[in-house]
Amino acid sequence: MTSTIEHSAGTVVILGTGGTIAGASSVAGDNVGYTAAQRSVADLLAAVPPLAGTPVEAEQVAQLDSKDMDAATWQALARAVARHLARPAVQGIVVTHGTDTLEETAWLLQQVLAPAKPVVLVAAMRPATALAADGPQNLLDAVAVARTPGARGVVAVLAGQVHAADRVRKVHTYRTDAFSSGDAGPLGVVEEGVLRRFADWPAGVALGLDVLDTDPTQWPWVEIVTSHAGARGDAVRALVAAGVQGLVVAGTGNGSVHRALQQALDEARAAGLPVWLCSRCAGGVLVPAPGAAPSPAAALSPWQARLALQLQLLSARRGGG
């Protein structure tokens, strides 16, 4: 499906959380030695003159490097997004974010809210002080997507591409086109402020905002362990002894696990701990052997799987399960 869509005139709310897009360096040519989360969301808007005539509002929800993203910030962000989406005058939301954990935040918001209006995460690989900063164009493109009639769900916009929340992955450490949607490809592209769409918008059933209404320090502890050559089970046993409440295993290839690690994981399962299997590979899904039950994390990245299991445990806790 390919479609070219015009804009409409509802208000777009820009929620700032920090990240490289708001980063600054004392040296204009420095693209790696900067400090993230130095510019306010109002500063970011001021750096994009074409937005001057667009109905936008700005709110600073957080100001952090996204490598330090935490449950409390997710909780505050989800509440802010839901509050603004409920306003009839608001057509969509844009969230300025760091690139390191953008895919996790996008997945969380889609799972919890499954919004009928667009929620667009935007980031940058270069700080605001770079000689060729990518943030201003990305922000302009994100607002264009948020103003597209019929848009819905959580997406990410970077380097002219639009990625659905369930597919987006950071796949490069440095390039400005650092994100991919894997086998499926991007949902669309933004060309001179107009979205050309190839696939449908994200959809699903929302878990509901109340699933996050738990003291952030009390969210279930779920960890990721990775299988590799020479893997040992000691880390799994140590995590179980420390009180971990769920494990995600990033297996090699099609979900294979080193035999020493597998033994410790079997012990954890026998003790009643949920253990989900996915792959450490950047692309593809787990294909089950004939007669085998599919993993609940078969199509998820390890980071998505960790959040999905955490949300499942939160839901079970609230439901008394």
Explain this structure.
With 321 residues, the protein is α/β, with parallel strands linked by helices. Helix content is 26%, strand content 22%. It has a 9-stranded mixed β-sheet. The longest helix is centred in the last third of the chain and has 18 residues, at 302-319. It is globular. The termini are far apart. Residues 1-6 have low confidence and may be disordered.
Quick synopsis:
This protein is of the alpha/beta class and 321 residues long. It contains seven helices and 14 strands. Strand 4, helix 3 (102-113) and strand 5 form a beta-alpha-beta unit.
How are helices and strands ordered from N to C?
EEHEHEHEHEEEEEEEHEHEH
Query: What's the helical proportion of residues?
Result: 25-40%
Give a short account of the largest sheet.
9 strands, mixed
Between the first and last Cα atoms, what is the distance in angstroms? 42 Å
- How large, in whole angstroms, is the Cα Rg? 20 Å
Give the tally of β-strands: 14
> Helical segment tally?
7
Strand line-up of the largest beta sheet: 1-11-10-7-6-5-4-2-3
DSSP strand content: 15-25%
- Judged by helices, strands and strand pairing, the structural class is alpha/beta
